[in-house]
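Example 3.2
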Amino acid sequence: MTDVDAVVRVLGIRHHGPGSARSVVRALDDLQPTVVLVELPADCEAALSWVAHEQLVPPVALLGHVVDRPHRAAFLPFAVFSPEWQAFNWAAEHGVPLRAIDLPLAISLAGDAGTGDGELLLADHPVGDPIAALAAAAGDLDPERWWEDVIEHRGDGAPAFDAVAEAMAAVRGGWEAGSVREAQREAHMRQCLRAALKDGHTRVAVVCGAWHVPALTAPLPPASVDARTLRGLPKVKVGISWVPWTYRHLAASTGYGAGVRSPGWYAHVFAHPGAEGLARWFVGAARLLRERGMSASPDHLIAGTRTASALAALRGRPRAGLAEVLDAADTVMAGSTGLALIERDLVVGDAIGEVPEHAPQVPLARDLTVQQRKARLKPHADAHTVELDLRTPLGRARSVLLHRLHALGVQWGVVQEGRGSTGTFRETWGLQWEPELTIGLIERSAYGTTVQAAATGRLLERAGAATALADLIAVLDLALLADLPAVVQPVVARLEAQAAHDPDVVQVIEALGPLARALRYGDVRGTDASALRRVFDGLVVRVLAGALMACRSLDDDAAAAMVERLAGAQAALALTDHPARRGEWPALLAIVSERGDVHGLVQGRATRLLHDGGAWKRSQVGNRVSRALSVGTPSAVGAAFVEGFLAGSGTVLVHDRELLDVIDTWVSGLAPDAFLSTVPLLRRTFGAFEQAERRQLGLLLADQVGVAPAGFGSEVDGVRAALALGTVRQMLGVAQ
C-alpha cells in the first residue's frame, strides 16, 4: 500500500442481497470511510451524482450504450435492497466521495465480451460456483438457501464480511482471475484502489462482489502487472443514462444473470428483518387475497406465521425463508390459485422505478417522459388495459402518443379491439412498459429529438421504401392515427399518383378497405380528409373499370380470395357512404353474378352482396339462386355458388323461407354420387354459421318435414325419415 497508515475495508457482497445491504450500511457507519469505492463501470461515475435526487426511485438501472451502435448496450440495475445502492446513498448522505472502479463500459462494450443485445451482467462469472462449493462444504446442497441462512438473514456488519473474505480466499486461493475479462476488471479495480490511496484517503471502503475480495486484499500484485494487463484495450464512445427498472426484470427467470428469484420478497426482508417481518409478510398476503375475493382471516395469519417458523426449525434453518413462507401459505391460507397470486405480486412484485426528468438520457427519451406526463399515462411494469374515449382531449392525446410510439416501433401498447368494437370513438389498448423499450428509443433517436419528429421521420422513410399501394396506405393510416400531418400530405400525393398507374387492379381492390378506414377514422379525429377522399374516389373508378376482368377465369384459391376482396370493397363503400354503392357498384355485381366465365364462389358472393346491399329484391335473389341450382347446372358449380352465397352467415335463410326451400329442394334432388361429392362443401358452409343460426334452420326444416314430408323428396321412406328426424330433434334440443 502507498500509505501504511491507511485502512482498507473490502466488503464482499452478493448483488441484490438484502442482508449484504444491511451489513454494508452497518460497516460504513463503523468505519466512517473518507472515500467509498464501488464495483461499477468507471464511466458511470458521473451519473451517481443523481443518486440523492428525490425523484430517482429504485428499482432503476444505469443504461450504457455504444453511441453509434445503440443496440450494443448494458443494463446495470439496482433495487433498494442492493448493497451498491445503499453504499451510493450512504456516501451521498455523508458527503463522502464515491468512485466507480470497475472496467469502463467503453472497454466492455468494445470487444466480444459485450453482449450486444441489451444486457451486460453485474453478476460475477468465476470458474465454477464458489457459493455452491462453500455450501457443499457446510453440508448443504442448496447454495441459495445456505447463503441466505449465513448472510442474507443476518446483516450483522463487519463480522459478516470477515467471514465472506475468509471463505472466498479458501475457495479462490489467490488474486488471479479465471478469465481474461475478469483479469482486466480486477486489474482496473486495483488501479483505482491505488489511486484512492495515492490521493491521501486514510479510510477506504470497497464494495464489490464477494468473488473479487481476494483480488483486492493485500498484498496486491505489482502495479506494473495491472498496467500491462490494461494496456492497449480497444474503446468505444458510450452514452450513460438512468432508466426505470422493474422487479420482474430483476428476477433471475428473465435472464438477468445477477438477478434474484424473489425481488419482492427481498425488498420485504430488507425493510422488515427479523421475526416481525414474517408476521408482516402474512398480513400483506392476506390483504392481497382479500382484494381478490379470497378468504384470509386473522386465524390464517397466526397459523401461517407459526407454520413457517415450525418448518424452519424442522429444516434446521435459523429463521423462516421464502420456501417456508410459501409452504405455510399454501397449506394454511392460499391453495394453488392464491399461491400463484402471491408468487406473482409479493414474491416477484410489480414495482417500477422512477427517473428525474432532467437526468442524463437521450433527448427522445426525455421528450417521451414529458409527453407521458402531459397525457397522464404513467408506465407500469404489469400488463393492464386502458380504454380511451377519442371525443375527449385526454383520450385523443393518449391515443396520439401511443400511435406515435407504434410508428416508431416502440411497442409500449397494442390495440386490442381495433379502433372501437362498439363505436368509432373508442380505443382499447393493452399496455406494459419493458425496460428494453428504452434501447428502442435510443435506436430511433436518429429520426428526431421529439416523439413527433422521430415518428414523422420514420414513417416518411417507410413511405419512401414502399412499392405497393397497401404499404403506402398502411403508412397513411398510421400517420392519421398518430396525427402526423407532415406525413399525410406527401404520402397522399404519392398514393394518388401510384393508384392512377398501377396495372394490378387486384391491389387497387385490396386498397379500398384500409383507405376507407383511414378516411373514416381521419374524419373522427378531425383530420382534413379532402385529399384522401380524392384518392379514394380515384380508386373506386379503377375498381369499377377493372373488377369484372379480375373476376374471370379464376381457380378455386383465387376465387376464394376474390370473394373476400369483393366483400371488403362493398364494406369500404358503405363505410364512406360512397355514391357508387347505390349505382355503379350494384350494376357491376349483377354482371359478375350472371357471367358464365366467373367462378361459382364469386357468382354466389356477388349475389349475396346484392341481397345484403338492398340492390336486389327477394324475388330477384330467389330467381338467381334457383337458376344456379337448376337441373342443368353441375352439382359442383351449384355447391360453389351456395358456398359463396351463404359463407359466414345463414341469416338470409332464416328470414327467407322461399330461399331455404330452393336450397332444400336442390339438396334433396341430388343424385347419390353428386350428393356424396357435395356434402363436404355444404358441411363446411353450414358449419361456419353461428350455433343459433344452425339451430333455427334445423327447427325450420323440422317443421317443414312435419307438415310436408314430400319436402325431402317423393321417394323417401317415411319410417326412416321419422327416425332421422328424431335424431335431428335430439341433437338440436327440440321437444319431440
